Amino acid sequence: xxxxxxxxxxxxxxxxxxxxxxxxxxxxxxxxxxxxxxxxxxxxxxxxxxxxxxxxxxxxxxxxxxxxxxxxxxxxxxxxxxxxxxxxxxxxxxxxxxxxxxxxxxxxxxxxxxxxxxxxxxxxxxxxxxxxxxxxxxxxxxxxxxxxxxxxxxxxxxxxxxxxxxxxxxxxxxxxxxxxxxxxxxxxxxxxxxxxxxxxxxxxxxxxxxxxxxxxxxxxxxxxxxxxxxxxxxxxxxxxxxxxxxxxxxxxxxxxxxxxxxxxxxxxxxxxxxxxxxxxxxxxxxxxxxxxxxxxxxxxxxxxxxxxxxxxxxxxxxxxxxxxxxxxxxxxxxxxxxxxxxxxxxxxxxxxxxxxxxxxxxxxxxxxxxxxxxxxxxxxxxxxxxxxxxxxxxxxxxxxxxxxxxxxxxxxxxxxxxxxxxx
Amino acid sequence: xxxxxxxxxxxxxxxxxxxxxxxxxxxxxxxxxxxxxxxxxxxxxxxxxxxxxxxxxxxxxxxxxxxxxxxxxxxxxxxxxxxxxxxxxxxxxxxxxxxxxxxxxxxxxxxxxxxxxxxxxxxxxxxxxxxxxxxxxxxxxxxxxxxxxxxxxxxxxxxxxxxxxxxxxxxxxxxxxxxxxx
Lengths: 423, 182
Known about the structure:
The complex is a heterodimer.
Chain A: E1 8-10, E2 14-15, H1 33-37, E3 74-75, E4 86-89, E5 107-109, E6 122-127, E7 133-136, H2 137-140, E8 146-153, H3 171-175, E9 178-187, H4 188-195, E10 203-208, E11 215-219, H5 220-223, E12 228-233, E13 236-237, E14 247-249, E15 262-268, E16 283-284, E17 290-292, E18 300-305, E19 316-325, E20 331-337, E21 345-346, E22 348-349, E23 359-367, E24 372-380, H6 389-396, E25 409-412, E26 418-420
Parallel strand pairs in A: 6-15
Antiparallel strand pairs in A: 1-2, 3-4, 4-5, 6-7, 8-9, 9-12, 10-11, 10-15, 12-13, 12-14, 16-17, 18-19, 19-23, 20-21, 20-24, 22-23, 24-25, 25-26
Chain B: H1 3-23, E1 37-38, H2 65-75, H3 77-80, H4 115-125, H5 136-149, H6 161-166, E2 175-177
Helix pairs in contact in B: 2-5, 4-5
């Protein structure tokens, strides 16, 4: 193979991103190509078996290839103390692009997934309105809808990194409470307008129809801005685990406030002070005061490949890729470091970054076979820059773990094994 | 100008207006449908479970911790244990001190800023295996008992919508509202 001179973009092997277009088989695939096809280079390639017989028929609801890998959500062990409670995490390290398939979108439930017959489901608007209203699902479907591509992130995502200990894990186990989908629904402002919001109403208390009747309070300015009463996700009716038949969707904000199985919206002067906005989803600071109603998720990024518990088979060229997002705008820039933050190179965005949506970045990297620490650092359209872990710990202490947007460090050892490290 | 010419001009203007309305962008007033069914707050009284710090949504009724002990033993003890000591995490509902040297144990007594939240949460979500199985009276009683376990009310103090919302919780001033930062 011809020896190529790659232009370096930063220390420890990061390459200029314009090499992305030139890599092809001369890059990662080259060394192993012969072995993969099981024949000597230079032999005549044969028509494969599956091209010599008809394949399977069309199916009712598709599923991945049996060869595509066993990528699944990762759910915790059920706890009888919290019947139905828990979470499942998206397999970020196996996904590409920016859209999470519906069956792999992360879940967090406080009392399980209710089995709702939409014919029996009601959405009520009451409180400080001119006329309380009740909407049937059938009638909600008749409204003009809008579609938005937005990420959703649990504010407890990545919390393990602030709890001390080694936090050995994968991109999925450490950061998988993050997904992105196209959400389609009715602007909440349209339904609120129909009920007639009274001037003294400052908050909208949203309640779900699950066993916990989980509630959260949304400030009126957000409610009238970009919040959706969402009915569809990536084109199909929202799945039960995401709130079928109808959920609230608050773009850019901590996931818990996008109340699933939405059944009530009550206009109020003050927040309802639900349990899940007082006892939970609040952050106790080193001075023992606690931050409440921390809504937008901070600017953040994560290298998804190579990432925790993966192993690099041999020195050579790899595509470093990951996702970046911000609850305060679009991603403007992602930088990548291979030397633990000493030097940085700009990554290429794989598609045009959108407001409050996942953006995919990529940059080529030549692993020398020696130790490396891979990091990514995002900047959003409002100028916010993703902090390092020490900055988050210095500002927030170790009592709370919500709203952690620190830079993730993946350590690569001499053998190519990758793990979460703190630098 | 003859009458017929005026009529023609008027119909032209009408036609233009209709065209403009038809071409109006999505979401404009013309396109808006209104399919909500009017309902009264009274009709919603069984469905609306929001009990707020200002007392709104609190049902009639009252209870004491002494009455609540029995409700607790029947419905809560299996997870929260004797005296609200729990096992770990959410099941520990009593004790703790936000100013402790170690990382503080955050419970109803040490952390929760509003007493109304206790009533609201028990009524909507507890007991976790059979939520909404308690009567409003029982919710008042067991709310009083949990407050008693935390040394916030006396054993025979009557807890109702007024006395509950008058309670100043130990960590009532411990929260900083960030809602303006979005």
